[in-house]
User: What shape does this take?
Amino acid sequence: MADAIDEYFEVALEIVKTAGNLIKEHVDGFASFDMKASDIDFVTEIDQKVEHTLISGLSKRFPDHKFIGEESVAGGANCILTDEPTWIIDPVDGTMNFVHGFPHSCISLGLTINKEAVAGIIYNPIVNQLFTAKKGKGAFLNGRQIHVSQVKELRNALLSYEAGTSRDPEKVQCVLDNFKMITSKGHGIRSLGSAALDMAMVALGGSDAYFEFGIHAWDIAAGDIIVREAGGVCIDPAGGPFDILSRRVLCASSMELAQELAKELHQYYPERD
Ligand code: IPD
Assistant: This one.
């Protein structure tokens, strides 16, 4: 199994790097976009081209593998996770950033087998940050091994979270309540505009935890394995086990911090993927 994962990963990495050039060509922003689930949920032709490049390249090499891609699902494909090797793709995570020319967007590619993430690649080609992990082999930034921070208490934690792409009043209220909670109890708040890069920062030890309500499997599949291989944890924001299709995530440098945060968080339960 480990040898097979190595092979899948190496093939995927080359395809991701090639697809990254499509993003790099537009570092100053991309003015033409369409809206999807809301008026702040964007898609560009680059999202579609990157997803096409990844799926066609991977399916040529691994014809039996399955795919869950953000733009394919937006186009009507099913979002069904089986035990088969499945590539979970966010072609441009941080599309809002990409549109505005805020240099914080990435390709996020996770591979699940038996519904568990076993390899992940998060690649921001604009600032050349390549986060990678394979099951049991550690997590890396541009080839250098990375580890989560030592922070175990909320009062010492730098946290990131996102307002997301929904303007549902209940969701907006939850975002505001959590802002208040963190500004009263934590070190500080960051919001990077990319769930995958938020998770990569936890893996790097730059931040200590990240949570979000309303994300999708493609935003967090790669981040899940990268955080865990860096020594961190991924759980449900209410404290239970992580469920990749639940549209809820909390990752942290330690289980102590994750559980303390889970107790404090205002909760929101979106419809599942
Ligand atoms: C979005 C980003 C954003 C997060 C949203 C995601 P997209 O992904 O990760 O930071 O708040 O929940 O949908 O749409 O840019 O691929």
